[in-house]
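Bit of a strange request maybe. I'm writing a small parser for structure token strings and I need a real example to test against, not something I typed by hand. Could someone generate the tokens for this chain?
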Amino acid sequence: MPSMQRLKEDITVRFDFPSLRRCTWLRLTWWNEYLTALDLRFNDKEQERCFKKNLEGDLLRWMLVGSTLAAVCTTFNSIATFGPELLNQGSPHDFSNFKDTRNLVFFGQILLWTVVPAILSCLIALRIFFEFFLTWHWEIVITSIMGYGSMVIVIGQLYHLTVLFGGDPDDVWKNDVTCSAEAWVLLGLNSMTTAAAFFLPLRSVVSWSVPVIGLITYIIMKVAFDDDTPPSQLLVKIALLMALSYLAWHGAFRTEKHLRTEWRAIREVQKASEQIEEQQVSIQQKSRQIQEKEKEVEATTDLVRSLQTVTKALCDTMVHLTADLRIRNADTSVTFFEQDVEGLAFTDLLNKEDQSRFAACVSRATQAHIPVCLPVTLKKQYSTSECHLVLVHRGNTELRYLIGIRVERDYPSAFEPLRSAEDEADAAVRRGSNGAAPASSTEAAAAAAATAAQATSLPGSVNQGHAFTPIIPCQINSIDEDLESDFSFTTYPKHDPPRPPKLTNFRARARTIRMILKRWNVPRDCESCCQYHTVLETIDEAVECLRQQKCDPLWSTYSQQCPRCACMNQGPKCVVCGFLVEEKPRGSSTGRSSGR
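Reply from user aminoacidic:
Good idea to test on real output. This should exercise your parser:
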């Protein structure tokens, strides 16, 4: 602090002795630390302002009670004091005579003790009940009022007020007011200091001014107007008053220290509670977002499952692709592709013209999130197929794309299939008949043997006695290229669909339920007419349980219907009525193309 620094320099200049300078500076340092320890204010000004605002409510309420009691009590005291004067026959009290010192003292006490506290009570009541004067610094106002009360206790006492108005208390008043004046002043100052310390939550940085103002006023009055008190007694009274004031102030200091600690702890708890509430709100929002995402994922999963089911029914095989369009989980597609395609890029199985179209199809499916259909030419190991692809984007998962492949037509691969020796001989004879030199039977046999040797050199050939027949995975020569497919992604099937099944009547449904009831074992009901109706009443519980289950979009009845009772079955025999349906021989309908 600048003042302490100047004081230190002054002491250093005046006292050159090192030991004396050291002792003096230690004393000043201790006093500075003590004063700093007495300052309980927070370093944060906003925090100190909030603490001060927190004390304002109790401060106003206690001050309203104190000022009201002061106004009422002083009014009764004035009545008790001036009542006997009105009955004084020797010197009657006339209120209209302002030259009478008693009138001046009476009106002075009414003004100091009654009017001012009443006005203060009204202001505090307006602040508490009607929220007026919100911008006032009520701590400073109430501290000033308490200082005013300390001054009034000394000045407004009957003895001192009579002396201030120029009268002699012994001559003016009928009763003796000199002997008890000193006691009332000291008791009033002590009461004022104690009340300010223990009831009013004033901060210690301002509450010290209340006893100091009262003590200074008391010393001035004693020095200026009291010549009868010995100096030794005056010093004792002042010392005792200072000691009592310090004890009261120190008690208020300790109370404030405890209040500050408690208030800070409560404030931290409130901040923690607010943070917890904010976190709870954030957690609830995150939970709702997660639930929405789960619903979206569930809806997407259901869609993918439905598409997989539809794809399995309409397509020949399915392929899973990663983000870089590589095939995964292709164990079931090895037979279709005639080779192991695990980890292979799907675009390597397409022609160059189809690769760019397939890339555009992937981009469209990714952006639109809808299935996309694309006709392509697919290259296998031993054959080439014209196919339709159904591409589905599954989302940002490891297996990002699902492809359903429907084969429309197969073609032979680049090499010609091998022919038998008899076919080679016939071909040689035909060439000879066309003008070429006929070959002898020995040459024809040699050519056939060479062809057979060539066949044995192919991978996958099997020795069948004296003849060798190569195993070709797909017999291309057996395909009827003029036969049209009955499948199309854009048109309806060429063959008439089967007739839809009839509706099952209520008698058949009731009979089915009666057959199911035989399989249930439920407790007997003594109040029921029979066990049949007891079991029948338990159907409601089972139906309610089934009604609460999730929807199953792919649920359907069995495919075969009994022509007698119209119940649906899995096999040719009806489990309800026992009727046996004769199966039609296979091959009655053309179905799909036989070339696949």
